Structures are given as structure tokens and as C-alpha cells.
Amino acid sequence: MEKISVCGVEILIERKKIRNVYIKIDSVSGLVCVSAPYKLALNSIENFARSKIKWILKNKTKAQTLPKVFKNKYITGEKITFFGKTYSLNVYDCDKKPAVFLNFDTLDLYAKRGSSEKEREKILDGFYAQHLSKAVAEFSEKWFLKLNIAQENSFISAGIKKLSRMVFPVFCDGADRKPVFYFKRMKSRWGSCNISDRKIALNTLLAKKRLRCVEYVAVHEMLHLKERKHNKMFKDYMKNAFPDWKEIEEELKIVGEML
């Protein structure tokens, strides 16, 4: 991996099959990493980083002051957070299907003898996804109607709608469908929205946060079906819908394990 130094800040460069340049800062180490296209010249990357140096220094300092999140190895005695509450983890060997059981103050994880850290992590991710799915199902219907997503994408009359489907089939087909949620572990974001397919991905690590945070992220992604950009209307709606948005966003900044 290439390295450059800009104003005393060491920056790692990761080449990817992308068109644009992106900067991310590890919230645990404060390490700065730039993702850039394969063919982009090194001096162009350096100039880009230099143009963003104020932002880099500000967020590097902020990242290093955030509470650090312990990286679990998924062994007995560790602390596991689930929907904002901390549980003690018990790991048991089993010959049957792997499973996780939630008790009053413990999480019991059953895995095959000699299982790896990655295998136990995958089992717990499945547990997280299962409970996130149930939680999202409870409030997504309410917000689908409240956000008026279907009506926003509908046309005035059936005749116009039929004609528009003939002219703009890609944009009109399925515009009234409810979004489909799915869950996976992500490295640098809590959620994402594929507007054309009406699919919303949520990070399984959201299951560590309070349900209020889960709802906030889900609604944020659903709102993109109505407004693509993070413009003033988008931000004002989120602030009005969640008066405690500052507290939620502060909690969502603690993403040490995620990164």
C-alpha cells in the first residue's frame, strides 16, 4: 500500500476500481486512508489530500478523542452489547446447529468445538440480523406511511401513470413498493439505500446500539427514497422527526469496532 505525508500527516493510499477519491479516518487509531482510482497520479492524490488538510486534522483529532470500543474475540467472559445493554458472553461447544440465546444478563453462544473467531462472529452477526429484522419490521410500516413515500413517487392519475411507465419504465416500475431491508456487517457506514431497487442495507453492528438509534438510521435511509441528497429539506425533516438527533448522532459516532 502506498504512503504519502501531507503537512506532517501520514496517509495510506488504497487503489480501487472507483472514479472518485475518498478519505476516511479510523476512529480508533486516527489513521488516515485515501481510496483512489488505480490510474490516478500520486501527485493528484497528494494535491487532493492537501486541499482537505483542515478537514483531516479536525476529524483526526476528533476521532482520537472518541471513546474506544473493545474488539471482541467472542470468548467466554467478554462483554457484548445488545440494543444498548451489556451482557456477559458464554461460549459453549456443541455438535448441533450454532445458536445464540439471550438471558437476563448473559448471551450464550453455541458453536462447534474449535470454532474460529471469525466463525463465532458470523454466528453472532446472524443473531443480530434476526433481531434487527424484527425491530425494523415493527416501525418501518409506520414510517413508510408517515414519509408518504409511495404517494411521493406516484403520478396524478392512472392514465398518466400508465403512460409514464411506457416512457420511463425504469423510474416508475415499483415506485409504490415498500423498501426491502437486509442486514450485513459494513466497515464504514451504518446503512445504505439502493434507490432504484428500493433496497436498504443496515449494518448488523447497529444491534449494539439502542433501538432509538436503529430507528433513526432506518428512517434516514428510507427518507432517501423521497429525497436523494442530504440537502436542507432532508436534514430539517430528520431533526423534526427526531428531536434527540444530537444525542443519537453522538452515540453513532462510536464506531471503533466497525472501522
What's the short story on this structure?
The protein is α/β, with parallel strands linked by helices and about 260 residues long. Helix content is about 40%, strand content about 25%. The chain has helices at about 40-50, 55-65, 115-145, 150, 160-165, 170, 210-225, 230-240, 245-250; strands spanning about 1-5, 10-15, 20-25, 30-35, 80, 85-95, 100, 105-110, 180-185, 190-195, 200-205.
Q: Can you characterise this structure?
A:
It contains nine helices and eleven strands. By secondary structure, it is of the alpha/beta class. The longest helix has 30 residues, at 117-146. It is globular, with a radius of gyration of 22 Å.
Level of helix content?
Answer: 25-40%
Supply the helix-strand structural class: alpha/beta
CATH topology of the largest domain: Zincin-like
Q: Largest sheet, order of strands side by side?
A: 1-2-4-3
Radius of gyration: 22 Å
CATH architecture of the largest domain: 2-Layer Sandwich
Number of beta-strand segments: 11
Q: Summarize the helix and strand pattern as letters.
A: EEEEHHEEEEHHHHEEEHHH
Broad CATH class of the largest domain = Alpha Beta
The end-to-end span amounts to 18 Å
The fraction of residues assigned to DSSP E strands is 15-25%
The total domain count is: 3
CATH superfamily of the largest domain: Metalloproteases ("zincins"), catalytic domain
Give start-end ranges of low-pLDDT stretches.
151-174
What overall form do the CA principal axes indicate?
globular
Main beta sheet strand tally, sense and closure: 4 strands, mixed
Helical run tally: 9
